[in-house]
Amino acid sequence: MLLNEKITIIRKMNNLTQEGFAEELGVSRQAVSKWGNGTSIPDVQLLLRIADFYNLTLDQLVRDDFDLPISSLDEKKIAGDLSDKSSVSVDDYLGKVCDVS
User: Would the pTM count as exceeding 0.70?
Assistant: First the structure.
């Protein structure tokens, strides 16, 4: 899974708009939009802030060696259909793939 997809998943799983995510990181909404559509990537310092803020390792965030398995529950969560944030954690979600070694 590519970095832009992971950033979008992390943002949506935390019920954040592009604007809300941008505010948390101290960047513009346009920057988050570019990260999401893959036309730009965050610099290393921002990647570290994203990883630290969401309790991920930098490897989990940036390596695209594995695709993340998405269940129907996760798809609904990503689409914003569910309002209970506690049902799926980002760390558990990314850990499904990243901790298989």
Answer: no
